Amino acid sequence: DAGVTQSPTHLIKTRGQQVTLRCSPKSGHDTVSWYQQALGQGPQFIFQYYEEEERQRGNFPDRFSGHQFPNYSSELNVNALLLGDSALYLCASSFNGASTEAFFGQGTRLTVV
Amino acid sequence: RKEVEQDPGPFNVPEGATVAFNCTYSNSASQSFFWYRQDCRKEPKLLMSVYSSGNEDGRFTAQLNRASQYISLLIRDSKLSDSATYLCVVAGGGADGLTFGKGTHLIIQP
What we know:
The complex is a heterodimer of chains A (about 110) and B (about 110).
Chain A: E1 5-7, E2 10-13, E3 19-24, E4 31-37, E5 44-50, E6 53-57, E7 64-68, E8 74-78, E9 87-94, E10 103-104, E11 108-112
Parallel strand pairs in A: 2-11
Antiparallel strand pairs in A: 1-3, 3-8, 4-5, 4-9, 5-6, 7-8, 9-10, 9-11
Chain B: E1 4-6, E2 11-14, E3 19-25, E4 32-38, E5 44-49, E6 55-57, E7 60-65, E8 70-75, E9 84-91, E10 98-100, E11 104-109
Parallel strand pairs in B: 2-11
Antiparallel strand pairs in B: 1-3, 3-8, 4-5, 4-9, 6-7, 7-8, 9-10, 9-11
């Protein structure tokens, strides 16, 4: 039974570029949430996708957008990258639109230079 | 005021000792409470949920005080493998997603 998988594991981008991160939820889960974790901080909620729609959103600018596919996998897109976007991006999967009972992927470490 | 506040530590504790962490949360309507464990450069993993009646899982005991908006975690007979960052997490009450504290860094020394 595959857990939550994210790709890529590491990524280096230049300021101003765009990036797409990918997440496949745990088998049986239909809800994907994205979190940003800066160094020395706890994860911060970006948004949640359920039934292919953004259901909840944290305090992040519109540069952060996402998508959920019919197979429940999800993408996080960040446009016009800033140095401050450097962080570990975590995907969490759960069931039926819940935020709790969530399992996290290993994350994508994004470095913006 | 931060939504979930924790002492970042580090807590340096000898192996076999008992250690306690606390956190406070600001949203009185929060409904669900958790402790997560995060190892260096890894993803957070659920350690245990926290209930008003208190709950225990082996060497770990969690307590919730809704009146004081305070959550605690007690680790007894600490092991070297307990070294990690412990994240206090709340959910519900109108907040979106899980709200994490910054984490408390624990180092168990031999």
